[in-house]
Amino acid sequence: MSNKMYLTLKLSGRNMINTDGGWFGVSDPVYEFKKEDPRMNDWTVTHTSIPIMNNLNPDWPVETIDVGTLCSHLDDDIAISFTDWSRRGVEHYKYMGTCDTSINGLLSAAQTSSHLKIKDDAEEITGYVFVQMAELSEASEPARHNPPDNPQAPNGPMDAFVNGILGQVGETGVEQVFGLIFGDD
């Protein structure tokens, strides 16, 4: 098995435009990585973040992404497009802006604590992106980065609990332990 390159990334948005408008609505920003598809003469979405609800200064969780899904070379152009997420589906998302960069651009922004400008189609600044962390690693599998307070996520408390049991009783004893806990015969 050949090793893949992974990008571990943490982004934060600041002073993002409110596309919900009005007194009661605040945007729910989500970002999408896009790479140029020369065959289609268009940009293809390769990765989508989770939305951060009601927040114009979102801090997204750390993510680990296969670099091969984002680009072929570390200097290839990639776009990070920001939209206002909608429960009603993608067709109701509202465009907030885009920043153009590369993997090397993200690495540089993280090292220099600089920001990237989010611009709309008229090249007006609609917010800023701070690259809190950007690291490349080579591995046969990505490291998992999940919030520790999510008991359903890999590497969360439930994994620690199960791994603790495995360490004490081994795989064959797990069924017996869970049978005692949950009353299975």
Helix content: 10-25%
Q: pLDDT below 50 for ≥5 consecutive residues: which ranges?
A: 148-185
**How many DSSP E strands?**
8
SSE order in H/E notation? EEEEHEEHEEH
Notes on the structure:
This protein has 185 residues and is α+β, with helices and mostly antiparallel strands. Helix content is 22%, strand content 36%. The chain contains three helices and eight strands; from the N terminus they run ββββαββαββα. It has helices spanning 67-70, 103-112, 157-182; strands at 4-14, 29-37, 42-48, 63-66, 78-84, 94-101, 115-119, 125-139. The strands form two sheets. The protein has a four-stranded antiparallel β-sheet. It has a four-stranded antiparallel β-sheet with strand order 3-2-5-6. The radius of gyration is 20 Å and the shape is globular.
Give the structure's gist in a few sentences:
The protein is of the alpha+beta class and 185 residues long. 22% of the residues lie in helices and 36% in strands.
Topology:
Blueprint: E1 4-14, E2 29-37, E3 42-48, E4 63-66, H1 67-70, E5 78-84, E6 94-101, H2 103-112, E7 115-119, E8 125-139, H3 157-182
Antiparallel strand pairs: 1-4, 1-8, 2-3, 2-5, 5-6, 7-8
